[in-house]
Amino acid sequence: MFSSLSIDRGPPPPQDNDLGSSSSTSSGCSHGSSSDQDSDSGYSSFQSDDPPHAWDGTSRSLSALCPQTKIDLSTDEDRMSHDDEGPDHVDTDSEGADSDTEDFSADYVRLPLHCLRDLLSLLPSLATLSLDKLSFCHGTSTYRNPAAAPETLDGRTIQRLYIEDCSSPGQDANHFFAVLGLFSEVQVLCVDGGPWRVDQPCLVSRVPIIRGLVLGALEETNCAIAFYDSLRRSGSLGGPLKSIRFTGFTREEMEAFFGFAENAGPNLIDLELDIYYAINDSPGLPESWESFTLDFCSRLETLTFSFDFEDEEQPACVCLEVVRTCLRFYTHLLSSRSVQRTLRIVTFQVFHAPVAPFNFRRSAESSSVPRWTELDNVLAGLPELSYVKFMLCDVDGRGTEVEETKAGMAAFLQQYMPRMWWSGQVRMSLEEEEFGEMFQY
Fold this sequence. Notes:
Layout: E1 4-8, E2 37-38, E3 43-47, H1 56-65, H2 76-79, H3 82-85, H4 99-106, E4 109-112, H5 113-122, E5 128-132, E6 134-137, E7 157-164, H6 174-180, E8 185-192, E9 209-215, H7 221-234, E10 243-247, H8 251-264, E11 270-274, H9 276-281, E12 302-308, H10 316-334, H11 337-342, E13 345-351, H12 356-365, H13 371-380, E14 387-392, H14 401-416, H15 418-423, E15 426-430
Parallel strand pairs: 1-3, 1-5, 4-6, 5-7, 7-8, 8-9, 9-10, 10-11, 11-12, 12-13, 13-14, 14-15
Antiparallel strand pairs: 2-3
Region (Disordered): 1-101
């Protein structure tokens, strides 16, 4: 009956006909919604503005969804007496919960994991699940015995799973892994935010097969590393995982990701690296970035990079230096021997694109090293290349901004990337034109 479900605190997100544009990875994962209860569209959204412990509104929504089925929304404390807990019980939901954690929990809706499992069992045809601003409780981390975790739903697959800005009391990442462990396969997993902490070994052994991954900031690099290790154990890297969209904000995050990508790379077909801010905010000489490589990506067909000019207060000299460092690094990655043999499409995602032609031109005119020419040459040398695309984001389509931005980009590319421009292999598109093009493999 229901194909899409959103559980969150705020108002319904905008309607989405597909996974969304690839630009969504810069700030998280976009997802869709409709009315709270709309059987015609096949969509149901449960929301709450109540305190974390107040589930009356959600209980009413669930009762309307499944009027003949009683769903127990109580927590484990409500259902289990301390006399029955036994020696294996460890209440990590309250252990180490400092004032920061309490402040965090007050902003989130508390979701018992057994409730989520029960709900999924009632919705066998659910294709999309969005979990936003939730505090998961009572998963595997509550017990020393991993078998006490909510059981996986045998053979349960889902097309799209969004986990955004969620955490748990104590911020224990085992709750995050317990949510993943409810599924046997996820077509597209979109993860962004936290906070999560990895203060103990991962107790969840069940990890689904992941075929497409949109990975935003997990805030703690140790959590990202634990997540990468779980993907290694899942069997996803043996062929199923073919598309990754990665957003990194620090060099530490990039180092962890590239270590993981070395294992995932042999089967990757589509890779997006939204790493402009990692380069912008990380110390180190430009050449230090060249320790990263894509030589392990022997089947890569599409590769996406980013530029972002959101910070209008950034000194011009800093902005130009970041652009030049990005150009050097992107050229270096495109020069990897493996990707040179297989790349068909290279995309540059340009955020706040109306100011891009001006900044690009200044970066070319103020440097004694022709970085744009080097990029032009390496792109022109890709034997399987079909086209290079500049995706223009944050452009106001109501006035003349679209035409002015495209004209400015065209004039710049004719002058500073002439080989690609005159080859006829350059395309320009707007962000909204890219909806529905993610994860075609």
